[in-house]
């Protein structure tokens, strides 16, 4: 999978720097792999930024398999941006939902209520977005834990190993091998 870093959308100034969408899309155009993970924990927190990049992608007709991360409150506020990215090829969206109860949401300083969290899931379901509950609980070491940090990280690594074996095992390897095979066949075929 390719990789694109979209200059931390949450730290950019409210006015998108001129030329940034074109620069981001130039990076995307250079990625040969079919999949791109958009590295930004709060993708499209400012809808005008996500829209500007999407508009440039549409103008250049660049479609890939995009993987985005976002928070529940951002999805609720900016549904149209995520719909636009879906038309461009967004395959997965990882939702940050650290808690579903009011106390937990307050403890983690989340800007959503339990009702908002459930509405977010409904928005995702009604929009036919793939929901992968196996990836629902991605751990963050910044959350409070009663475990000593060394033990926490050992357990975190064990959990990730299980997920990797289950989701990135032989079937995923076979699928990746087919993709690599197709790319290799194109490179070794005579030019037309």
Features:
192 residues; 4-stranded parallel β-sheet; 8 helices; 4 strands; disordered N terminus
How would you sum up this structure, described in words?
Strand 2 (35-39), helix 2 and strand 3 form a beta-alpha-beta unit. The chain has 192 residues and is of the alpha/beta class. The chain contains eight helices and four strands; from the N terminus they run E-H-E-H-E-H-H-E-H-H-H-H. It is globular, with a radius of gyration of 19 Å.
Task: Provide the residue-averaged pLDDT.
Answer: 75
For the biggest β-sheet, the strand order reads: 1-2-3-4
| Largest beta-sheet details | 4 strands, parallel
Query: Roughly how much helix do the residues carry, as a percent range?
Result: 40-55%
Low-confidence stretches: 1-12, 133-137
Order of helices and strands: EHEHEHHEHHHH
Specify the structural class.
alpha/beta
Using only C-alpha atoms, the radius of gyration works out to 19 Å
Treating each run of at least 4 consecutive H or I residues as one helix, how many helices?
A: 8
Q: Calculate the terminal CA-CA distance, rounded to whole Å.
A: 27 Å
Q: Report the strand count.
A: 4
**Basic shape:** globular
The fraction of residues assigned to DSSP E strands is 5-15%
């Amino acid at each position: 999978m390719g990789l694109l870093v979209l200059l931390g959308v949450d730290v950019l100034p409210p006015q998108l720097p001129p030329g940034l969408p074109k620069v981001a899309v130039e990076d995307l155009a250079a990625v040969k792999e079919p999949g791109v993970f958009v590295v930004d924990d709060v993708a499209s927190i400012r809808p005008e930024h996500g829209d500007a990049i999407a508009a440039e992608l549409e103008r250049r007709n660049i479609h890939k398999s995009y993987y985005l991360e976002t928070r529940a409150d951002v999805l609720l506020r900016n549904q149209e941006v995520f719909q636009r990215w879906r038309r461009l090829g967004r395959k997965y969206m990882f939702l940050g939902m650290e808690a579903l109860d009011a106390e937990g949401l307050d403890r983690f300083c989340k800007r959503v209520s339990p009702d908002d969290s459930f509405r977010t899931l409904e928005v995702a379901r009604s929009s036919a977005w793939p929901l992968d509950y196996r990836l629902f609980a991605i751990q963050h070491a910044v959350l409070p834990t009663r475990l000593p940090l060394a033990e926490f990280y050992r357990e975190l690594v064990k959990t990730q190993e299980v997920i990797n074996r289950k989701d990135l095992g032989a079937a995923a390897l076979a699928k990746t091998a087919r993709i690599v095979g197709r790319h290799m066949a194109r490179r070794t075929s005579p030019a037309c």
